[in-house]
């Protein structure tokens, strides 16, 4: 068997296993990518919410990153919860030195359960110091609004405007996730990708489920895994979307925990054998 590509995740631990490092590593594994990790914080978390956060010292996070970079040469890096401006600055310095290839930044600010996962100052350091070095940034509509200092997008056009405006901070591409559009046939989920070659709008029917904890982490780590495997940014986003949709469909009937259960990381291995006609670009700018 061929040696797998390596991806590094720099993110927080979710003790409930739905988001954070746990989601990232299971997603990497499902996609045949060896996962290395640098843990930034230990959250006391389950399906009902985040109950406590214990930051890992900045020096310990950097030591994990350094030893993985030296020994395992990751082909892509995903950054999730950083939590503190001083850690964002430290990771940004490593990125600025050109040492974090195909960097996917998920600007984690607040959990779906409403718990803040980032202290004051993180938004500014992400925007000014880390985003300029990112290959792909993956905010949801709330995170995009926080980075831009505005209100969340209320239409696909506004979502596209936000994706375009975020490009001004210097990343190669931005995908704003989590838009919703009501149509006569139901609700659609919309993600908008903006990059140097144009804008692509992805729209697909919403999957009805209460088990959606960890969708953002799973999406960003899947994109990093596909980039590590050599996909273009457009194809990495399309495939990451496909994987999350497969995971959401699989876990919809599950009962795990008493809150919003995790997406089905354990069953994503069969995703690539399952064509999904509902996951296709809806409209496209210039080809990339
Ligand atoms: N109920 C759903 N049905 C279909 N796709 C979904 C659903 N919930 C999230 N997604 C998809 O999951 C991915 C991650 O998005 P999002 O939910 O915005 O992340 P976050 O957890 O950061 O808020 C996107 O591709 C989004 O369209
Ligand atoms: C440790 C940790 N990191 C990130 C998140 C946010 O995860 P996300 O995938 O955006 O999912 P939701 O929390 O929105 O369901 C987290 N909760 N914990």
Automatic annotation (TrEMBL):
Transmembrane segments: none
Keywords: Kinase, Thiamine biosynthesis, Transferase
Catalysed reaction equations from the record: 4-amino-5-hydroxymethyl-2-methylpyrimidine + ATP = 4-amino-2-methyl-5-(phosphooxymethyl)pyrimidine + ADP + H(+); 4-amino-2-methyl-5-(phosphooxymethyl)pyrimidine + ATP = 4-amino-2-methyl-5-(diphosphooxymethyl)pyrimidine + ADP
Pathway: Cofactor biosynthesis; thiamine diphosphate biosynthesis; 4-amino-2-methyl-5-diphosphomethylpyrimidine from 5-amino-1-(5-phospho-D-ribosyl)imidazole: step 3/3
Top-level taxon: Bacteria
Keyword Transferase appears in the UniProt entry: yes
Domain Pyridoxamine kinase/Phosphomethylpyrimidine kinase: 14-263
The keyword Kinase appears for this protein: yes
Task performed by this protein: Catalyzes the phosphorylation of hydroxymethylpyrimidine phosphate (HMP-P) to HMP-PP, and of HMP to HMP-P.
Name the record gives this protein: Bifunctional hydroxymethylpyrimidine kinase/phosphomethylpyrimidine kinase
């Amino acid at each position: 068997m061929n040696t797998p590509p390596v991806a590094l995740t720099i993110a927080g631990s979710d003790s409930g296993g739905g988001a954070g490092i746990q989601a990232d590593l299971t997603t990497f594994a499902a996609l045949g990518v060896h996962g290395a990790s640098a843990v930034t914080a230990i959250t006391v978390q389950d399906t009902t919410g985040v109950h406590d956060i214990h930051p890992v010292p900045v020096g310990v996070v950097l030591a994990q990153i350094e030893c993985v970079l030296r020994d395992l040469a990751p082909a892509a890096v995903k950054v999730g919860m950083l939590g503190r401006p001083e850690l964002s600055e430290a990771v940004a310095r490593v990125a600025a030195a050109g040492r974090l290839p195909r960097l996917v930044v998920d600007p984690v600010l607040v959990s779906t359960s409403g718990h803040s996962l980032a202290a004051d100052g993180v938004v500014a350091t992400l925007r000014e110091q880390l985003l300029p070095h990112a290959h792909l940034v993956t905010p949801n509509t709330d995170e995009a609004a926080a980075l831009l200092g505005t209100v969340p997008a209320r239409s696909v056009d506004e979502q596209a405007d936000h994706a375009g405006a975020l490009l001004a901070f210097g990343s190669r591409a931005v995908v704003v996730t989590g838009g919703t559009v009501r149509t006569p046939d139901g609700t659609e989920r919309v993600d908008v990708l903006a990059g140097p070659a144009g804008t692509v709008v992805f729209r697909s029917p919403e999957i009805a489920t209460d088990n959606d904890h960890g969708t953002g982490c799973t999406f960003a780590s899947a994109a990093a895994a596909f980039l590590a495997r050599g996909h273009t940014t457009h194809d990495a986003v399309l495939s990451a979307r496909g994987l999350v949709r497969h995971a959401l469909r699989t876990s919809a009937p599950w009962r795990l925990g008493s809150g919003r259960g995790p997406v089905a990381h354990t069953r994503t291995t069969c995703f690539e054998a399952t064509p999904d006609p509902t996951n296709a670009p809806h409209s496209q700018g210039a080809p990339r």
